[in-house]
Design goal:
about 280 residues, alpha+beta, Diaminopimelate Epimerase, Chain A, domain 1, 18-stranded mixed β-sheet, 4 helices, about 40% strand, DAP_epimerase_DapF, Diaminopimelate epimerase, lysine biosynthesis, amino-acid biosynthesis, EC 5.1.1.7
């Protein structure tokens, strides 16, 4: 299987061009290639596929083999791959994902390679049934108490196609992400588990985020998570609707625009290509 290793702000995936390659058991392949000692090493597997509804289609699998509806850092890399490798020839493209069809704007460098991508991530979904969470279907979850191991956290939740639980903390560098992340990920109020973002407010326009990803553990960045953080900051009155988010592996710009759409802008990088026997 031919593959290309790419990352967005350090959130790295193995990408397979399914215009020419076939992947029969993507869940198993994701587990195998993701392993950082016995595989290629990545946070998961992303398939770049033909679509009958858009220019390109993305399927994304976490390192534990579970499939996610959406991946913000992944979709930027899919766009870069599609442009740089001649699958698309324009700088405004559409992509089919589990979160619907998204539109992306590509920014190229002097060598005509994509360097940065702006994604219309769609409208955040805020009700418990949409996230999904147990409890009153139509209710929103803003600053709601949640007790974990004798500590009360306050959670704000949103779906960007995939579920997110945002928690604001005072000192994110020293926060025990590995201790609390998995408990919240697997908490019974999230029937399809959840991604968890721990966030420190720096100012009304700047935050610092660490991410515990559903199915992958702590990662260096999460684009859908950074988008959910932009929404959660605004809903709690802590930040403006336009912020710079410092993730562990790089920065993302987020804007929850007046039209209700969430725009995410960030880097996309190709690292290397190779072949692996599956
Ligand atoms: N890192 C990804 C999100 C992966 C989400 C995945 N862990 C899930 O199960 O939803 C991002 O940049 O948006």
């Amino acid at each position: 299987m031919k593959f290309t290793k790419m990352h967005g702000a350090g959130n790295d995936y193995v990408y397979v061009n399914c215009f020419s390659e076939r992947v029969d058991n993507p869940a198993d392949v994701a587990i195998k290639v993701s392993n950082r000692n016995f595989g290629i090493g990545s946070d998961g597997l992303i398939l770049i596929m033909p679509s009958d509804k858009a220019d390109v289609r993305m399927r994304m699998f976490n390192s534990d083999g579970s499939e996610s509806e959406m991946c913000g850092n992944g979709i930027r890399c899919v766009a870069k791959y599609a442009y740089d490798h001649g699958i698309v020839g324009k700088k405004e493209i559409s992509a089919e994902t589990g979160a619907g069809i998204l539109t992306l704007q590509l920014f190229t460098n002097e060598a005509n390679k994509v360097e940065k991508v702006r994604v219309n991530m769609g409208r955040p979904r805020l009700t418990r049934s949409e996230i999904p969470m147990t409890g009153e279907a139509g209710a929103k979850v803003i600053n709601e108490p949640l007790n974990i191991l004798h500590t009360t956290f306050h959670i704000t939740c949103a779906s960007m196609g995939n579920p997110h639980c945002v928690i604001f903390v005072d000192d994110v560098e020293n926060f025990q992400v590995e201790k609390y992340g998995p408990i919240i990920e697997n908490h019974e109020i999230f029937p399809r588990r959840t991604n968890v973002e721990f966030v420190q407010i720096i100012s009304r326009t700047e935050v610092r985020q660490r991410t515990w990803e559903r199915g992958a553990g702590e990662t260096l960045a999460c684009g859908t998570g950074a988008s959910a953080v932009c929404v959660a900051g605004a809903l709690n009155g802590l930040t403006e609707k336009k912020i710079l988010n410092h993730l562990s592996g790089g920065d993302l710009e987020l804007e929850w625009a007046e039209d209700g759409f969430l725009y995410m802008t960030g880097p996309a990088v190709e690292v290397f290509s190779g072949e692996i026997e599956i």
